Amino acid sequence: MKNEPFRYTYSAQQQEEIRKIRDKYAPKEADKMEQLRRLDAGVTKKGTVISLVAGILGALILGVGMCCCMVWTDLFFLGIVVGTVGIAVVSAAYPLYCYVTKKEREKIAPEILRLTDELIK
Question: Among 13, 34, 42, 89, which lies 20 to 30 A Cα-Cα from 96?
Answer without folding.
Answer: 34
